[in-house]
Amino acid sequence: MEVQLLNKNYLNEIKDYLGDYQIDLPSIDCALQLSKSQLDKLNCWLTSHDELDPCCEINFFKTIKSVPFSHFIYFLLIKDFLKDVPVMDTKAQNKFLRAHMDRVNAFYRHNSEFISYILQEQSYMDPLYFTREATRNQATYSLYFLDPGFSTSHDTLLAKFKAFSLFKDYLENQSLDNQKQTRISTLRWTGQKVDLVELVYALHSCGVFNHGNASLKKIAEYLQCEFGCDLGDFYRSYSEIRFRKKSRTKFLDQLAITLQSKMELDDQ
Predict the structure, then answer these.
(1) If 0-12 CB within 10 Å is exposed, 13-18 middle and 19+ buried, where does residue 255 land?
(2) Which of 7, 88, 122, 171 is deepest in the core (most CB within 10 A)?
(3) How far apart are CA 234 and CA 202, in angstroms?
(4) Would you give the DSSP letter of residue 211?
């Protein structure tokens, strides 16, 4: 379906926002706009493809719409969190974090049966959960406020589950940041700065942080902070690396050679 291409393009736009655990309110508003725009596009697509067979309809509401919908809810959760989080008092911050973690845990407990259904990749209830015809036959208070042409009985709950999963990771990251405020790193980068730049770009290219969603800038900021090394204009340093006449991955090559030598020595 061409609708899957729509989500692919959207994911390329939203990925840096998803990997940013230090996201600010203006960036959150941009992410919310992206998610809302994607939902509008999906709604338009569905309107023009109203006669879907049940399998396609289930796939749409279970796997396609839930992507931007969960992101929209996730960024709303962060926005509400940032508007009220205490600024200076560490104890108050920790208490505030615990309250929000309790909220996440309460959601998991209250919806444990449905969450188990999703995590086990079950499908026997999908015709009831993710088709509009089944939803029309259900008379509940919450369904009264949903768009009957763009909603099913459980697609919102699925999006909330995915959003709370992302929000849990966000809260855990904030907790770690609070711990870092009382901890001073004893590791210092004593190699050349350009070597660290090479490592930053390699780690970003491999997508080893946040499932490949961490931006280059965030990785660089993290390593600079942890290793007490100011990389300056690392974009310029990368350009100089690219134009090396010999090996462009000098430091990475050295790491591989050094490790191989150690392994050979240990094998003796």
Answers:
(1) middle
(2) 171
(3) 13
(4) G
